[in-house]
Automatic annotation (TrEMBL):
<feature type="domain" description="DUF403">
    <location>
        <begin position="1"/>
        <end position="307"/>
    </location>
</feature>
<dbReference type="InterPro" id="IPR051680">
    <property type="entry name" value="ATP-dep_Glu-Cys_Ligase-2"/>
</dbReference>
<protein>
    <submittedName>
        <fullName>Alpha-E domain-containing protein</fullName>
    </submittedName>
</protein>
<dbReference type="InterPro" id="IPR007296">
    <property type="entry name" value="DUF403"/>
</dbReference>
<dbReference type="Pfam" id="PF04168">
    <property type="entry name" value="Alpha-E"/>
</dbReference>
């Protein structure tokens, strides 16, 4: 397989997962407004923090961190490479160039969603219509994953796409945990501290993990338990450990994978040795930075092994954003 085709399939997997997670994140954040008591201020800037796009947002919208600006930036802004519309457009372009390697149904699905966002995306930005548009995106991305998994030959090309999906999901999960557990609810009053569990529930719902968590943990939602589930659980498809294991299982089907395997093992060891009770008291943000740097190095190892003749020059801060 040509390295260009392999790289395209890798990024196809990443764009599909990124679009779905971004749409779900906006949806959960919008619903969180209904769960909070009066007097509690909910900021929209954390959603931009999760994607690491603060500088670009400031260039386009200045200091206006309003709901309308953030929602437009994350859903339809074509200048933002990680917006829902930009991710769908990039995935569509990749599918157009690798039609011989992917099912026709996948092209029809992504093309229909691309046209929907172009023609009606702006109409679905206000709260009254937003959920309808976001549901269409998440449903389409889940259907895309099903079509590709069920109808695409599980050859080397499929493994590259699977690796991209797994790495992107691990990266998005750590980003959501990192930002959503710090200053999501902007309040310092003692009266509102009992509502802290709502914050942890929103973390789970941002990753479609609330029902699975309750079934698995069988205890009330709490910080350490949520972190253990989303980071260490081996059976939940959106946990970091699950995706690192899926990534490691796919690598042996590719040639010359040893460098990538070592970087994955280092991240897995970092996660398995963590004590989340202590990290919540101090150092969670710094620890998650280490995990994200490890994921960035995994991307670099894959890129050097299969896509580029020389070491990647992409900064670790922007590993998950392809321009």
């Amino acid at each position: 397989m040509l390295s260009r085709v392999a790289e395209n399939l890798y990024w196809l997997g990443r764009y599909i997962v990124r679009a779905e997670n971004t749409a779900r994140l906006i949806s959960v954040h919008s619903h969180l407004l209904l769960d909070l008591p009066r007097g509690m201020k909910l900021g929209w800037s954390p959603l931009v923090d999760i994607l690491g796009a603060n500088q670009l947002f400031a260039e386009r919208y200045g200091d206006e961190w309003s709901e309308a600006n953030v929602v437009r930036f994350l859903i339809t802004d074509a200048e933002h490479g990680s917006s829902v519309a930009a991710s769908i457009s990039a995935a569509r372009e990749i599918l157009r160039t690798v039609r011989d390697s992917t099912p026709r149904d996948a092209w029809e699905q992504i093309n229909g969603l691309h046209l929907f966002l172009q023609e009606k995306g702006e109409r679905h930005l206000p709260r009254a219509q937003r959920q309808t548009g976001l549901d269409r995106v998440t449903d389409a991305m889940l259907l895309m994953r099903g079509v590709l998994g069920a109808n695409m030959s599980h050859d080397v090309g499929y493994q590259f796409m699977r690796i991209g999906m797994s790495l992107e999901q691990a990266d998005m999960t750590t980003r959501i945990i990192d930002v959503r557990t710090v200053d999501l609810i902007q309040s310092k009053t003692d009266e509102l501290r009992p509502f802290q569990h709502i914050q942890w529930m929103s973390v789970l719902r941002s990753l479609m993990a609330y029902q699975a968590y309750r079934r698995h943990e069988k205890i009330r939602v709490s910080g350490p338990a949520v972190l253990r589930f989303l980071l260490q659980d081996r059976g939940f498809p959106r946990s970091v450990t699950f995706n690192l294991n899926a990534l490691a299982n796919a690598l042996p089907r590719l040639p010359a994978y040893r460098g990538s395997e070592r970087s994955i093992d280092r991240v897995r060891a970092l996660i398995q040795d963590a004590s989340f009770d202590r990290l919540l008291e101090r150092g969670l943000h710094e620890w998650l930075d280490e995990v994200q740097i490890g994921l960035g190095k995994t991307h670099e190892a894959l890129s050097c092994s299969y896509f580029q003749p020389a070491p990647s020059t992409v900064s670790t801060q922007s590993q998950s954003q392809r321009r």
